[in-house]
Amino acid sequence: MNNICKNASLILMLFVCCAFGACKKEKEQANNNSFLPMQIGNLWYHNNENFTEITDTLRLNNKLFYKFYSLIGGDAEAISYLRIDEQNRLIESYPSAPAKSYLKADFNAKVGDKFFTTGAKDVNDNEVTVVQKTDSEMVFSFDIVYQENLKGHPYQVKYVKGVGFSGNWKKLIINGVVTQK
C-alpha cells in the first residue's frame, strides 16, 4: 500500500509540474502584444540572403537575453542579444561585455521623448527620439550625436506590435505562427 501512495504522489507531482510548465510556456508565447515578440524560432525573412532569426537564449548578469542572428546581403552576419526589461524597454548587451547595456527602445515613452542609448557621451552613444507612436506602431529616430560626420543624419527604426521589426517580409514566424506572402 505504501508503494501505491508513493507512486500516486509521484504521478501527482509530475502532473502538477507539467501543468505549471504548460502554463509557463503559454505565458511566454502570449507576448503577441509586444512591440518585439521574443521566442526562439521567431523569424523575419526577406530572402536567403537577408533575414533575422531568434536562435537561442543566454543569461547575462542573471537576465535572460534572446540571441538574434541576422544574415545581411548573403555574406555579412550580425548577432545581437536583446531583452525587454520590467519597464518595457528594449535592452541590448553582449557576452563579451555583460556589464554594459544599450537602451534601444522605450515602449512606454511618448512622442517627443528623448533618451540616450548608453549615457556615456561617446561614439557608441546615440540620442534617441520617439517620432511616432500609435497603438500598433512605434518609430524611434537615432542620431549619432558624438560622431561629427554622422551627427544630424539620424536613422529610424520602426516596430510593429505583435510583429516586431517593420519590413516587407516574405515570411514571418512569430511565436510559432507562420505568415507568408
Q: Span between N and C termini?
A: 61 Å
Question: How many DSSP E strands?
Answer: 13
What string, H for helix and E for strand, traces the elements in order? HEEEEEEEEEEEEE
Whole-angstrom Rg: 20 Å
The helix-and-strand class reads: alpha+beta
Taking pLDDT < 50 over at least 5 consecutive residues as the criterion, the unreliable ranges are: 1-30
Give the proportion of residues in helices.
Answer: 10-25%
Strand order, sheet with most strands = 6-5-4-3-2-1-12-13
Strand content: over 45%
Main sheet attributes: strand count, strand direction, barrel closure: 8 strands, antiparallel
**Mean pLDDT, all residues:** 86
| Annotation field: number of helices | 1
Apparent shape: globular
Keyword list:
five-stranded antiparallel sheet; single chain; alpha+beta; 15% helix; 181 residues; eight-stranded antiparallel sheet; 1 helix
